[in-house]
Write a structure and sequence with these properties.
By secondary structure, the chain is an alpha+beta fold. It has one domain (about 5-209). The chain is built from eight helices and twelve strands. It has helices spanning about 5-15, 50-55, 60-65, 100-105, 125-130, 145-155, 160-165, 185-195, and strands at about 20-30, 40-45, 50, 70-75, 75, 85, 90-95, 135-145, 160, 175-180, 180-185, 200-209. The strands form three sheets. A five-stranded mixed beta sheet has the order 9-12-1-10-11. A five-stranded mixed beta sheet has the order 2-8-7-4-5, covered by helices on one side. A two-stranded antiparallel ribbon has the order 3-6.
Length: about 210
């Protein structure tokens, strides 16, 4: 069982300990974007199409949207983003410019898509009846999608566990953090995160330089 010393939390917040820590990094190195490679939480409308998620919920402009050509929904390649439905709790991986035969095979609408029918995502009857509702998904970015989408998603906000975030709080990536509207040094921020249970979620935003 994980035991934590919550004294840093009490020292920072007194008896008004927040349910969720909100961490903002006003100026961070691009390496912070690697957080999104292993998957992060994103609050969004679910029960909608993948295409609608990208354009309306994640607010990807035309240029960013058109760069994406690999969509893996719960591990299955999607050829029709306008028909595939995003379920609450699903895992969505986005990629672009994936090289080689694998990249060509996984690409949305690939000319060799007919060779992967057993793993391709197909919209079912339940998806056709899906209703839009607030939910949460796990989002991961790969290949060229990582450098051009990570800044956008970090500005929007991601949910990450204290355990996953803690290794990224280091002076080589940032100089300070703003935690629940209080400016903290990197070392102070690490102490606050260490006082959380490892699986506690942190709402994080950042501006990459």
């Amino acid at each position: 069982m994980h035991k934590t010393d919550i004294s840093p939390i009490r020292s920072a917040f007194g008896d008004n300990i927040p349910a969720t820590l909100r961490v903002h990094v006003p100026e961070a190195a691009s390496g912070l974007g690697l957080l999104l490679q292993s998957g992060v939480g994103v609050d969004c409308l679910t029960g909608i199409s993948l295409e609608r998620l990208l354009v309306e919920e994640l607010q990807l402009g035309k240029e960013l949207r058109n760069k994406l050509n690999v969509f893996l929904l719960d591990g299955k390649p999607v050829d029709e983003p306008e028909k595939a439905v995003i379920d609450n709790g699903c895992r969505l991986a986005l990629a672009a410019g994936v090289p080689g035969v694998v990249g060509m095979a996984m690409r949305s609408g690939s000319p060799v898509a007919a060779m992967r029918p057993s793993i391709t995502h197909h919209a079912g009857e339940n998806e056709k009846k899906a209703e839009a509702a607030p939910g949460r998904i796990e989002l991961a970015l790969f290949s060229l999608a990582l450098p051009f989408l990570a800044p956008h998603m970090l500005r929007r906000g991601i949910l990450v566990t204290a355990r996953k975030l803690e290794p990224y709080l280091r002076p080589t990536l940032m100089q300070s953090c703003i935690i629940n509207n209080m400016t903290k040094t990197v070392e102070q921020s690490r102490h606050l995160l260490a006082a959380l249970a490892p699986e506690n979620l942190v709402l994080m935003t950042a501006i990459l330089r």
